[in-house]
């Protein structure tokens, strides 16, 4: 049954979640939807890296990760960001459980492009049976990391991770929640975005930085059959909705 909803929450968005957001989660829970929150934490990773005098380098919005940066990423995501989000959910009396890639082979991955990005990956496998069981009672909260078949941890961009997970779960919806109300062009939200328009906005350097992996991730999930894919700062408004060519 197609009943999974995947929501990506940017690291900077966690402390800005609204009453409407939590209410929507409660509604979906009461309808029997299985909800997975994939959280970011990029700005905290950069902050700690700088404090430790480690280089902070991003290419196309993806963090170049050597072994030390990978360690910092795991520590920040699993030691700081995830507990913070769980705390917020608990304070709202929403039943949630923290998960990571190594829980019962939850997220398996492979290198994205080792030469260019280092220990960065994409998610290739998921333990759907485990989620089917856990998410009947709890909202899952998961960090964007993966473990390879040879037990190497990998850092995964949180937008990429959410899209990979939504595709693998055959989810009905993917919400990429961020600190802007959608894709902006001249200060206005682009309500519907086709691949062609996204390509043009990228070429014109209107879509830059962290919005780039979000767009790539959004189209990847849409192409694999996730019906509703949106980039937004609210669950209750669609922000920018991904559409087929020619529909906008
Ligand atoms: N065309 C665009 N429309 C909206 N935001 C954009 C655009 N191009 C670049 N951005 C930047 O992308 C940011 C969102 O990406 P990012 O900082 O990675 O957020 P998150 O941590 O939520 O993933 C916005 O805050 C904005 O600075
Ligand atoms: C490979 C890669 O880029 N990983 C990201 C993972 C966290 C993330 O994406 O966090 P936000 O969504 O808050 O930016 C990083 O290290 O920043």
Explain what the structure shows.
- Belongs to the acetylglutamate kinase family. ArgB subfamily.
- GO terms for molecular function: acetylglutamate kinase activity; ATP binding.
- With 248 residues, the chain is an alpha/beta fold.
- The chain has one domain (4-242): Carbamate kinase, CATH 3.40.1160.10.
- The protein has 8 helices and 16 strands.
- The protein has an 8-stranded mixed beta sheet, sandwiched between helices.
- Helix 2 (42-51) crosses helix 3 and helix 6 packs parallel to helix 8 (211-223).
- The longest helix has 25 residues, at 67-91.
- The protein is globular and about 40 Å long.
- The model has no long low-confidence stretch (mean pLDDT 95).
- N-acetyl-L-glutamyl 5-phosphate (X2W) binds at residues 10-11, 40-42, 45, 62-63, 73, 120, 144, 155-158, 210.
**Total DSSP E strands:** 16
Roughly how many Å apart are the termini?
30 Å
Side-by-side strand order of the widest sheet: 5-8-2-1-11-15-16-14
Form type: globular
Helix percentage: 25-40%
Give the ordered list of helices and strands: EHEHEEHEEHEHEEEHEEEEHHEE
Protein name: Acetylglutamate kinase
Organism: Liquorilactobacillus sucicola DSM 21376 = JCM 15457
Pfam family, one: AA_kinase
Keywords: Amino-acid biosynthesis, Arginine biosynthesis, ATP-binding, Cytoplasm, Kinase, Nucleotide-binding, Transferase
């Amino acid at each position: 049954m197609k009943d999974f909803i995947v929501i990506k929450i940017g690291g900077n968005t966690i402390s800005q979640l609204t009453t409407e957001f939590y209410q929507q989660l409660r509604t979906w829970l009461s309808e029997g939807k299985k909800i997975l929150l994939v959280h970011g934490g990029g700005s905290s990773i950069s902050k700690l890296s700088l404090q430790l005098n480690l280089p902070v380098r991003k290419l196309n919005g993806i963090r170049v990760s050597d072994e030390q940066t990978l360690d910092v990423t795991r520590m920040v995501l699993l030691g700081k960001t995830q507990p913070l989000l769980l705390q917020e959910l608990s304070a709202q009396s929403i039943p949630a459980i923290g998960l990571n890639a190594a829980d019962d082979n939850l997220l398996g991955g492979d290198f994205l492009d080792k030469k260019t990005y280092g220990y960065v990956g994409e998610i290739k496998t998921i333990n759907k049976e485990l989620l089917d069981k856990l998410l009947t009672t709890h909202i899952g909260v998961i960090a964007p990391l993966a473990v390879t078949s040879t037990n190497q941890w990998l850092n995964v961009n949180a937008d990429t991770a959410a899209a990979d997970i939504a595709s693998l779960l055959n989810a009905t919806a993917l919400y990429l929640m961020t600190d802007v109300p959608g894709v902006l062009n001249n200060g206005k939200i682009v309500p519907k975005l086709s691949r062609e328009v996204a390509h043009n906005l990228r070429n014109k350097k209107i879509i830059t930085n962290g919005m780039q992996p979000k767009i790539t991730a959004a189209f990847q999930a849409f192409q694999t059959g996730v019906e509703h894919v949106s980039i937004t700062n609210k669950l209750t408004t669609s922000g920018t909705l991904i559409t087929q060519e020619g529909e906008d």
